[in-house]
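Hi team, as promised in this morning's meeting, here are the two structures we talked about. I've kept the exact order from the run log so nobody has to guess. The first one is mostly here for context; it's the second one we should focus on when we meet again. Sequence first, then the predicted structure tokens.
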Amino acid sequence: MTTSQHDNEVDEIPVFKFNGKVYTTYEEMVSAKRKRNQDMLEASGLLKPPQPQLYTTRVNSNKRTRKKQAAVPQQPSRRSSRFSKSEKPNYKEVSTFIEQKAGAVKKRPRSATESRIVSPSPAATPVPPAANSVRSICIDTKTLVLGEKGVLGQMMDRTGKEFVINESFSLAAFSDDQKRLAGSRLSFNKYCGVQEFKNAVFLWINLGSKDNPVVNDFLNDAQQVSWFGGSRMHDESPVIHKLLKMGRQHDDKGGNDEPHSDIILWCRRYQSDTKQFTPYVCFGRLTYHSHVPQSHPLKFIWNLVDHDRLKNHSDEVVRERFAAFTT
């Protein structure tokens, strides 16, 4: 073997470079890097130990010391005038003096009759409805019930009052209101048993529910129906006045013309098998028959104007539905 071949076979010594310097071992290069990092941290001040916080006791030089006063013997605050041999105080004179100073005026005592009289509270001023409120909308009830797309005897496609309100608005609201509220969400009270429009009223009735404190029912071969006002309604409630006025309007017309009313009846029935209510069904217009004043809740009996149309409807489904709801 030649000398040149032997030199090629000798292992080359590894060289480690860092920061312009050459190190023969890896450990030396790592130590150089660590020293560089240490120097940088010390130069930045990050390695300085935190200075301990010195707590000093705060001395209040302005602390005031209370001087104890010598106890002064006191006489008992209450002593009998018999033992003290002093004149009795005249409390009436003191009271009169105070009234004169304050300018007090004695009120005349109420008689027994006046005490029993309770002054009536002033009537609350009606709050105008919001722009999107159902109470600001006029609706053509005859078109809604008997029009080309009338809903007499029809069950709504979906449950709930909101669907009824929106469907009625699209079918029979006056054109001005439809333009004014196009694309708006209508506002109404879904928890109340009555819904006012500007010129009409919807009455909501639940049938077959065991949870109702009152029982609504159809009477006189389904020509009449009972309805109960809400817990806060009384004889002087504005909505009750409106119902009485609208329900009695047909009495003033006279003649043989068919009575018309802007009070619309919507019913839904509780299904015991599904434990849910059906969608609402429109059973037409109502006129006033009677009610029980000062009852709580107020009880009304209404006449079904469209009874014969429902009972003799050309659609068999409507006839069967009316019979199922009213029996």
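And here is the second protein, the one for discussion:
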Amino acid sequence: SSGINAEWPLRPGEHYDKKYDRITTKAERPLTMTNRLFHYVSTTDDPIIRELAKEGHVFATDSILATIMTCPRSYYSWDIIIQRVGSRLFFDKRDDSDFDLLTVNETANELPGGDGGSNSLTKLSLEATYINQNFSQQCLKREAKTYKRPNPFANEEDDNEPSSVAYRYRKIPLLGPGAEPLTLICRCEVDAVTTSANGEEKYMNIKALNEWDLKGGASEWRQKLDTQRGDILTTEMKNNKCKLAKWTVSSILAGSDLLKFGYVTRSMPRSSGESIGHSILGTQEFIPKQFAAQISLDMNNAWGILRVIVDRCMQLKDGKYVLYKEPGKGILRIYKVPLNTFEEDNDDSDEEEEGK
């Protein structure tokens, strides 16, 4: 397994507002829209990763690593760019991909999206991402903080402030049986800090589960969340096995002490001119490693998957490659691509398969 032996904390997040733990279906709270900007910066575009380039062998973000480490659970296809540069590997996402959009019911018996409208696959994905962004900012206390280092992705020309997030740059030894240890440098995100009863500050990741399939316009969560929360969570674990595993892996990579879930449902419009709104019905908190056990996520296995991919890529010649996950199958393929692929409009499709 991999231990974490060093970190470069960058900016502390804001404190979680504990009044959100008192929300119930009888005292729900509307989800409000934030005007903060969310930055989804890939590995090689990160100026801090560039500063740390001599410190490690493998470089990635938490979301990229979580996607690889949970790949047996994913149903949809995805792809990751891999650059082999000397003794180093850089894992990136494509700029124009849907990599950062959340999936909805990806592992359900029946995939959503068949009925179009607001329940089309794309709209559901955008809705879940929108809910997560807004919930993660709404349940924070607004605090003026001074940071040791400025947000590396903020632009002075931006009209709106960046979302509150703490970036932790972590140095992790990647161990393998009989293999030489490699050093992984990973940018991780922490959404908030909270203070425990004994005054100790704890790191927290904040995510939202959302109800979208309202039977006849009625919310099952509104009726059952306060009394049958376990049943609702069990259904979410079954239908969103991959998404929950990714969130858990990201929290563990970041060294977060807590993983907070918000339960959010749709608020149906009162008139035909209004758009669908959303309401927060409750929250629930877990310790990431304990939640991993609850969803049968074996972290040793997840680290093993990553090490196999890294070892395979370390055998490749210098160049650019694509790691492609086939839809509906547990198959990963690696393709070699020209160095300028994805950097501009490039229609070069003479891909050469390197391995499986």
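Starting points for discussion:
The two ends are 24 Å apart (CA to CA).
Residues 340 and 346 are 8 Å apart (CA to CA).
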